[in-house]
Amino acid sequence: MENFNYQLFMMINVTPNSPFWLINVAEFLAKQAIDIIPIVLLIAWLWVPRRELVIKTLIALAFGVILAKALGTIFPHVRPFIQGVGYQLLDHSNTPSFPSNHGTGAFTFALAFLFWGRLGIGMFFMAWALGIAWSRVYLGVHWPMDMAGALIVGLISCFLTQWVWSLWGKPFLTNLEKIYHRIFILPIKKSWVKY
Where is the Phosphatidic acid phosphatase type 2/haloperoxidase domain (predicted)? Predict the structure, then answer.
């Protein structure tokens, strides 16, 4: 498995001959693309509104963070640049690489929209998540298996969230919406945000 991981990394990783425009695309995906998560969730809460989707996504992301941290502690794996493998064009600290935190967040978010949102937008976010995963391998800070692990963590996080939601989700959402209605009473009355 390690040999396959290494060979796949070498196929994906940037080279001195890589086009400058592709490096720029990869840097945007690796650094800024993840920032759309809070923006999308805020829009989905205030203006769409898809509040059940928002809360389930946030719960799944929390599970993802916890699982990724636990796996990184139990199964630490060094990053490619620490082993002197390939080329690194993205600054990164020497933390365990498995599973990728960026990959976990992106895949969990995309899977949440696939499972609980609309298929079309879920497919768009999955392509976005794959782009983030590719970029971080391409720029030399992750192994491909780090991203495969992140996808699996995302799946497990969504399944755990669905189980938790079946037990306590509806009353939790009702209470959150009551709090939201009290706090945002003026913007709601002025139709700046949805009820």
Answer: 53-162
